[in-house]
UniProtKB/TrEMBL annotation:
Localisation per UniProt entry: Cytoplasm
Presence of the UniProt keyword Lipid biosynthesis in the record: no
Pathway(s) the chain acts in: Metabolic intermediate biosynthesis; chorismate biosynthesis; chorismate from D-erythrose 4-phosphate and phosphoenolpyruvate: step 6/7
Name of the protein in its database record: 3-phosphoshikimate 1-carboxyvinyltransferase
Biological-process GO terms, alphabetical: amino acid biosynthetic process; aromatic amino acid family biosynthetic process; chorismate biosynthetic process
Catalytic reaction annotation: 3-phosphoshikimate + phosphoenolpyruvate = 5-O-(1-carboxyvinyl)-3-phosphoshikimate + phosphate
Length: 449
């Protein structure tokens, strides 16, 4: 769990060209789901390439508390002996999901249609995040939630003893909400239907299908409609987790802004519900080539070759927000080095992530000499162009891994060093970030800890 230790101040200094091969860790979204679906299956699921970040380790611990046998066999090699759909035991301890919105929301969904109670909590960041978006739909299945005012953790969920299936149109673009409803639907008789206005990341659908559930998707006048047949027998699988495009974003963007750089980031998922950043960067003029395109672990992947590029600002289509939702912080860093203005509309969901990411990036970039404009739903970055980004300030990371990593990348190309007050949250999603970036030539130091 993050946020419990001593804050680690980190500083990043201007470096020479970044070169080499950046093997980023396994996908966080897929890692959570592999553990949860493994726990809901009959038999032993084997997982390779699991992300061993704090968020995922907290989900592994939670699956043990619900009765699954979860074992680490070697780096990234795990097995889960599942209890089957509807087989969760009542945990005898509070489920602490640390910093992870995905962990807590998906697990709440997965237990909501079993006749058990579970109490959930998390770190100071997670305890501020809205859970009503999951407790509203699981109440329709018959579950009850008792949390703090405003639907905040800690919260106890009483699962439905006699669940009914649900038809639910998600009020916001959220793969976590969609997934919570689908996982709850597993133990409800009949069909559970989720309708999304714009499709969000589809790992839950792909993996449910892979584990043997009957699930279909169609585009209708209502939107993107997903139909799941309840009470399937999920069958244990071998899951090879592809590398995380959201982690790949950091070395990719660093190479684009540090003059003379050329790196390769192999095996990065190019799932169309996740690849928005790469499309946006290409539109900004980025020299990125997609080599060796293939399928790994049921996901389209490619090796990305990235060279330093002179970039220009643009308007990022709001319709692309879901496909790059976690990449806006690092995109705003790239935009600071571009020529011209980058306008990012349709991003209000960033306000309810690990931090208010619009505010965290705006304040940190301003402190480092970048002109910013913002409203509730939009972030606008005025690129510094050939003059360069001044840097020289400390940014607050607000217990948010993506904010911390973004400012470390800023420091790699800014004129003066850039610091973050606390880089410890980086361990939630990218525990090898500092070593990996140092291997490419970056200069990040810990000032303490
Ligand atoms: O389903 C998932 O694995 C995730 C969904 C997204 O959150 P929302 O569902 O809140 O958009 C994303 O920001 C998060 O990092 C992971
Ligand atoms: C938003 C994120 O994660 P979560 O919602 O799982 O905390 C993220 O990793 O950027």
């Amino acid at each position: 769990m993050s946020g419990h230790g001593t804050p680690i101040k980190m500083t990043s200094r201007k470096c020479g060209p970044l070169t080499g091969i950046a093997e980023v860790p396994g996908d966080k979204s897929i890692s959570h789901r592999a553990l949860i679906l493994g726990a809901l299956s009959v038999g032993e699921t084997r997982i390779s390439g699991l992300l061993e970040g704090e968020d995922v380790l907290d989900t592994a611990k939670a699956m043990r508390a619900f009765g699954a046998e979860v074992t680490q066999h070697g780096p990234g090699e795990w097995s889960v002996h599942g209890v089957g759909v509807g087989g969760f035991a009542e945990p005898d301890q509070v489920i602490d999901c640390g910093n992870s919105g995905t962990g807590v929301r998906l697990i709440m969904g997965a237990m909501a249609t079993s006749p058990i109670a579970a109490t959930f909590t998390g770190d100071a960041s997670l305890r501020k995040r809205p859970m009503g978006r999951v407790t509203d739909p699981i109440a329709m299945f018959g579950a009850q939630a008792y949390g703090r005012q405003g639907g905040k953790l800690p919260m106890t969920i009483l699962g439905a003893a006699d669940p009914v299936p649900v038809r639910y149109a998600t009020p916001m673009a959220s793969a976590q909400v969609k997934s919570a409803v689908l996982l709850a639907g597993l133990n409800a008789p009949g069909q559970t239907v989720v309708i999304e206005k714009t499709p969000t990341r589809d790992h839950t659908e792909r993996m449910l299908r892979g584990f043997g559930a009957e699930i279909s998707t169609e585009e209708t006048a209502e939107g993107h409609v997903i139909t799941l047949q309840g009470r399937p027998e999920l069958v244990a699988q071998e899951v090879a987790v592809p590398r995380d495009p959201s982690s790949a974003a950091f070395p990719v963007c660093a190479a684009l802004i540090v003059p003379g750089s050329e790196i390769v980031v192999p095996g990065v998922s190019q799932n169309p519900t996740r690849n928005g950043l790469f499309i946006t960067l290409k539109e900004m003029g980025a020299d990125i080539t997609f080599e060796n395109e293939r399928e790994e672990g049921g996901e389209p992947v490619a090796d990305l070759r990235v060279r330093y590029s002179e970039l220009h600002g643009l308007e990022v289509p709001a319709a692309r927000a879901s496909a790059q939702i976690d990449e806006y912080p690092i995109l705003s860093v790239v935009a600071a080095f571009a020529t011209g203005v980058t306008r990012m509309p349709g991003v209000h969901e960033l306000r309810v992530k690990e931090s208010d990411r619009i505010d965290a990036m705006a304040r940190g970039l301003e402190a480092n000499g970048v002109k910013i404009e913002e409203d509730e739903d939009t972030l606008i970055v005025h690129g510094c162009g050939p003059q360069g980004v001044p840097g020289g300030a400390i940014a607050a990371s607000h217990l948010d891994h993506r904010i911390a990593m973004s400012f470390m990348v800023l420091g790699m190309a800014a004129q003066e060093p850039v610091s973050v007050d606390d880089g410890s949250p980086i361990a939630t999603s990218f525990p090898v970030f500092e070593d990996l970036m140092a291997g490419l030539g970056a200069r990040i130091v810990r000032e303490n800890g």
